[in-house]
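Q: What would this chain look like folded?
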Amino acid sequence: MTEWDIKKLRILRTLAEQGTVTRAAEALHMTPSAVSQQLTNLARQLGVVLLEAQGRRVRLTDAAHLVLRHAEAVFAQLERADAELAGYLAGDAGEVRVGAFSTAVPALVVPAVAQLRKAHPGVEVRVRETEAAESYELLSAGGVDLALSLAAHAPTARDRRFTRVTLMEDPLDVALPPGHPLRDAADLRLADLSGDPWIYGGSGPWSEIARGACEAAGFVPEQAHSASGWTAILAMVEAGMGVALVPRMVSSRASGVAVRVLSRDRPTRHVIAAVRRGAESAPAVAHVLAALREVASARQ
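A: My prediction, written as structure tokens:
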């Protein structure tokens, strides 16, 4: 029977995710030579060629992809086993490390933690503010147990490494300066603001969301100012420097600006939670997911 080495299979998966031996070694806190040696040993154990030279880099062979396809099922089953064992040993207790994007921390994670302290005081949550790409790298590598992100910036549902849970829809409202002529308009559409100066990030996910929403409404927004933090964006709107799209999770706490719900052309983003496939049955993780669902449902 073929000898399967879980540790070496995890190294192979990390190489597939990171793309190079050097980056895989950094993610695994190993030396590149140690990574190469472990993969050479794995190939010998399995009796197949796993890597091919491609210039100064390496490429995974078809055999390597076949191995990884089956390995993902093994990893998921091991997560389930860990979850069941943790439940058996710890009962209603455990630590859950959560990676979440900035607006989700006060809007979803903090209220969920408050609920857990009352309902399941044995569950300890450790929070880490992360961008989507970082949170999924951490989730895959075991650095966090649960990742919160926007659906548009998460791995697809076909990614066998993760189980995704849709938490909520988060509509985008428009923030207007206090004296804006349309602040009291009865039927405000995004297209009505096509001639206004806009404030949004210079690059990254939020820049794409803002431009995409405006383009879907039939115009390209004139970017007057660029900022990535909501405190800065709302301060500029309050000062009359432009208008901005603001997620409902943020606009519900905004003051000093006129926040309007768009009657039409209303863009919406979706917030999801993801865990390593199989880990959703761990009691502590299940409690955190349930608390997040309850908080998200109350915000709908």
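The mean pLDDT is 90.
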